């Protein structure tokens, strides 16, 4: 099974933990989930805490044998996600504007 999460708004220290908690609750409720896609096209801003939480989510999912991918990362977030070691600029696809 697959879970798709569309991120929107601001991902910062005040909201990042809530996102992490919600995702882990959903994973616990559905043991058949084996893939999570975080779509970031609606992400307004992100701070270092938000980027770190995304990194921790990817690590945690990997340890649980769940594939977690991050898609449609806006240009303004690429550098920060790269700085926390989450992805490199060459690994990302530009956000698709619809």
Summed up, what is this model?
The chain is of the alpha/beta class. The protein has helices at about 15-30, 50-65, 75-85, and strands at about 1-10, 35-45, 65-70.
Structure description:
- The protein starts with a strand and ends in a 15-residue tail after the last helix.
- Strand 1, helix 1 and strand 2 form a beta-alpha-beta unit.
- The protein is built from three helices and three strands.
- It is globular.
- The longest helix has 16 residues.
- Strands 1-2-3 form a three-stranded parallel sheet.
- The chain has one domain: STAS domain (Transcription Regulator spoIIAA, 2-Layer Sandwich), CATH 3.30.750.
- About 25% of the residues are buried.
- The chain has about 100 residues and is α/β, with parallel strands linked by helices.
């Amino acid at each position: 099974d697959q879970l798709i999460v569309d991120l929107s708004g601001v991902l910062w220290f005040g909201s990042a933990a809530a996102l992490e908690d919600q995702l882990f609750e959903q994973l616990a409720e559905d043991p058949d989930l084996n893939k999570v896609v975080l779509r970031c096209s609606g992400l307004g801003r992100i701070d270092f805490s938000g980027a770190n939480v995304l990194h921790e989510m990817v690590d945690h999912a990997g340890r649980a044998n769940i594939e977690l991918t991050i898609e449609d990362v806006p240009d303004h977030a690429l550098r920060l996600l790269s700085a926390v070691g989450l992805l490199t600029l060459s690994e990302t696809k530009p956000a698709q504007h619809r």
